[in-house]
Every structure is written in C-alpha cells, then in structure tokens.
Amino acid sequence: MTIARQHYALAASLAALVVAAPVAFQISQSERDAPLEIVRAPAVEEYKTATRESAQLKPDADEKRKIASEMIAAADAERQREAESVIAAKRASAPVQSADLAVPPPPPMAAKPAVSGLIERDATRRMQPWSNLGAVSGGESMGYVLPDVVGDSRDRFTTADQNPIKQTAADPVSTFSIDVDTAAYAFVRRALNAGRLPPQASVRTEEMINYFSYDYPAPETAAEPFKPTVTVVPSPWNAANKLVHIGIRGYDLKSTERPRANLVFLIDTSGSMAPQDRLPLVKNGLRMLVDELKPDDTVALVTYASGSGIALEPTKISEKSKILAALDRLGAGGSTAGASGIEDAYRLAEANFDKSAVNRIILATDGDFNVGLTEDGDLKSLIERKRAAGIFLSILGVGAGNYNDRLMQTLAQNGNGVAAYADTLNEARKVLVEEASSTLFPIAKDVKIQVEWNPARVSEYRLLGYETRALKREDFNNDKVDAGDIGSGHTVTAIYEIAPVGAEKKSVDDLRYAAPVKPAAPVIAASASNELGFLKIRAKLPNAETSTPRSLAITDALAKPALADAAPDVRFATAVAGFAELLRGSPHLSGFTYDDVLALAGPARGEDPFGERSEFLNLVRLAKSAPR
Prior knowledge:
The protein is α+β, with helices and mostly antiparallel strands. The chain has helices spanning about 5-20, 20-30, 45-95, 115-120, 185-195, 205-210, 280-290, 320-330, 340-350, 375-390, 405-415, 425-435, 435-440, 570-585, 595-600, 610-625; strands at about 165, 175, 225-235, 240-250, 260-270, 300-305, 310-315, 360-365, 390-395, 420, 440-455, 460-465, 485, 490-500, 530-540, 550-555. The strands form three sheets. Strands 7-6-5-8-9-10 form a six-stranded mixed beta sheet, with helices on both faces. Strands 1-12-14-4-3 form a five-stranded antiparallel beta sheet. Strands 2, 11, 13, 15 and 16 form a five-stranded antiparallel beta sheet that branches. Helix 2 (about 20-30) packs antiparallel against helix 3 and helix 15 (about 595-600) runs antiparallel to helix 16.
C-alpha cells in the first residue's frame, strides 16, 4: 500500500469513529486488506509519487465524505422530528393540574450558621436532580454529572416477600423491630431522576415513610424516651378497610444533655470512589459534620482501598484545621479491602474508648468488600461483638452500579446504627447535619413494637413494610434479642391495614373442612368491645441492659370518620406508604394510582422548609411517566 493510500485509509477510519457514518466506515474497510507497515522516511521521488496519487484520490474521498455527511444530517433531522412528535404527544395527553395540587418552587433552604459556607452554596441542590457537582476527575465542570444507575446494574438488595395478610383469629400478634434507616428513599429518588423505576427490592416501605420528619407529640423528659400516638383512618385503597397509623417521637436532647461524641470516620478510598458523587461528596459531607460537632468531641480517620491505614489519629474538634486537612488529602485508588478497614477502625475505637461518650464508627462506601473478610456472616459476628462492647456502626452509602445495599443494611442493623444513602450533597447534609443528633445520639435502644389485635373487632391485618425487621412473638420480652434504636428527636412511623369483622370482602376464606378458629375468651371482656387492638413497646435506656414496657389501647376514640379529618402528617405518611407499595407492585392496592397519591399528598404537604415534600410530589410524577 502506498503512503498516500495509508494516509487516506487512516483519515477515513478516523471519520468513521468521529461521526459514526456507515459510508465512512466502508471507506476504511476497502483499504484494510493490504497490511499496514512501518516504513522508512520517503525519498524525494516517493514523496512526489505520493503527492500525485493524493491528488488523484482526493476527489473520490471528498465525494464519499460529502455523501456520509448528508446521510448523517438526514438521520439527525429524522430523530429531531421524532423527538418533537413524542414531546407534542405527551403535552397533549398530560392531565391539567388543579390549583390545589400545583407544587410551588421549593423555598430557599435554611442554613444553620455553623455551616453557612457550604450549605449556602449548595442550598438548592437537593431539589436539583444530578446537580452540577463539578468535573469527575478534576478540572472545570462540563455540566451535569450523569447518574451511573443506568443499564445493567450490579446493585444488590435484600429480596423479601411482602408481609402477608393474616387472620386475627389464628395469628393475632404482630412483632417487629423499629427501623429508622432512610437509604431506600434516596436510592428510589436517584433511579427516578435517572428516568427509570427503581428495582422493587430496593423499595422498603418503612424507609420511604421514615425519610420524612413528622410533628408528633414529644415526651417531656429523657426518663420517658419516646411517646406513641395512634390514629385510625379509612383506607384510601380499600373502602372496607381501615389504616392504623402509629407515630413515635423520641425525646429531643438539649445541647447540654447530649454526651460527648467519639467518632471514627471509616472511608472507602478505592478506585471506584473517584467520581464526584462518591469520595468528593463524602469529604464535603464530613466537613459539614465536623462544623456541627462540639470542641470537645473527637474524630479519627481510617481509610481502606487495597489495604487500610490510619489517616488521622483521634483529634479534638478544637483542632478543626488538622481534621479538615486530613480530609483534603484523601484520594481514590485501588481495590476494596473493607473488612480490613473495619477491623482497623474498631481497633482504633477500642484504644480510645470513652465510656461516658457515644463511641461510633461511620462507614462511608460505594459498594462491596472484595478483599479480606467478605462473608456477611463473618462481618456480622464481628460487629455484634463490638456492639456489645459499646462501639456502634452507622453507614453512609454513595454511588450506584455496584452498591451492596444488602450488606450495608446487615452491618448497620447489627451495629446499632443507621443505614443512610446520599445521592447529592444536600442529602449528605440532611443525614450528617440536620439529623446529626438523631443519628449519632440514641435516647433508647432495642426498641420493639408488638400489637395484639382483637379478633372480636378485627378479622384480618397486615403490616406495611418492616419485612426485614420481623421478630418472633417471644423475642419481644427477650432483652438479649437486638432491635433498632431511636435517636434524639427522631420520629418513627408504622402503618397497619386492618379488615374489621363483618367486612363484605375477606382476603382469606374460611376453611371448608375445619370449623372456624374461635378466639379464646378475652381477658378484658368489659372493655374489649371498643378496642381494636393493644399496642406494646419495649425499649432500653442508652446505658441500661433491661427493657421497660409501655402500652396503649387502640380504641374507637382514636378513629377519624374520614381520612381528610386526620392530621396532615398522618395523611402525608399514608400517601408515601401508598407510593412505596405501588413501586413494589403490591397486589393489595385496589385501583389506587399515582394520581391518588398526588391527590392525597398535595393538600397534606404542610410546612415544607426544605422542599422535601414538594420534591416527593415531583418524584411521584416521574414514576407515573417512567417506562414500565
């Protein structure tokens, strides 16, 4: 092959790569058969020959490039026409929003003075999907950071069957551990902002509900660590049934009451943490947390990638510049020896353990552990032993595509911690700053809920969510069985759907060949007629090893004749529960739709200082329009 032909073959191949034109690709194919050799520099005569051949070939190549350009332009025009047709069709079919459902722009986000610099700059980012967080690997930003949850994903979630409908006569008692995690909501938001529905296994109804704070009545003293509130309302998706809404609020510690924080930040610095929505996001979030802590609180840094090591020995917040400098030095690279990092973090926490302080490890990671202890059971056993010694573990997950939510949930649940997920800087701020007291400082531990339903009033029931938190009936009184914690000022919500006795339609038929199960004679016969059920809660104070029971009868006096008569928080939580059940593909929603969620949640938005509830309505609309 002559030099001129080599030049034009190379040019044609580059044209095919740049514009992806089939014709240009054919040009390179036609010249590919002769081997391409590395030759010496051409002599003068060869150069003249090449020049003449170039002149002869140029018109033909120019004509082919012209044809390729015309084909590309025609294809672009056709795609543009198709896109405009689709947009016009969607606009024509879009329902008109009524005035009471219109969502105003999210209000400016209020920043706390202690972290005004970072929060003010990023105050609106939580409401902006895929915010411009900067360039992926340094340099100037090129626009929005695209989500990495598109296409095939290796994210892993715990697959749990939805709670079944139970017959009260046969199984009247329901027992579960509370759950204050919020990771599912942020993951759902990330998927919907990427234009697709989330995997059903990633949607946990209780975490969707508990993502929001609610203005439930609060206890007055720390001696009463939490206060339950119960409301009974008609079910919006089954007119024959009722919903029993249980709201719990923890005591809000005053600044002078909270113990000292003794924290170890365990940070994944493996290569996959390089994107802006991972390690840089974690570093910014931890900077904001440092600004919230007291001068006497202590922070240490442990990192892990191919190996692990201590990046900062325990340091008082009074030396803030030293802590921030250590965070600034962190960079990403290597594999993921997470188990080694956890072991180092626990060793450091043990060496600096303070019995009077809250000793907690905060693990920030984007995925799995692929070096060292990789079995869930091994890590679970390690974390359970350390929990018994007074060192707790919380999780801050970031990124997607290889996120092991199943493992993160297991670690947090067994470490007496919270599993949160941050898809934006403002979500990291919400978890680490706004909710710092509730996530770092428990006011009650091993909190268990048990409801006994009255078979004379309730024929069937089911619990919405909490599938991974189910306990055995006998676990309720067993103080050795671990359960979830409630932090300072935290709110927790649980919702049951019940079918009253005498309802026209039952979900479970009576047996043909056996007599119907008759409930035992009630112990409290005189008052049973006005009781739907009996709520019991057990919990331990933070430094106690013995739990204390509390109880409340669920009576007709707690019922509202219509859902509209309930408090806005009850209506909004019900709307969120319905949305979660829709995303999970629940078979128990009779004709309930995304439009019904909007109609229920819109008027119940209430005060929304950070725009979170308005954002929820927009997520519902995204789910409604997402491809199935």
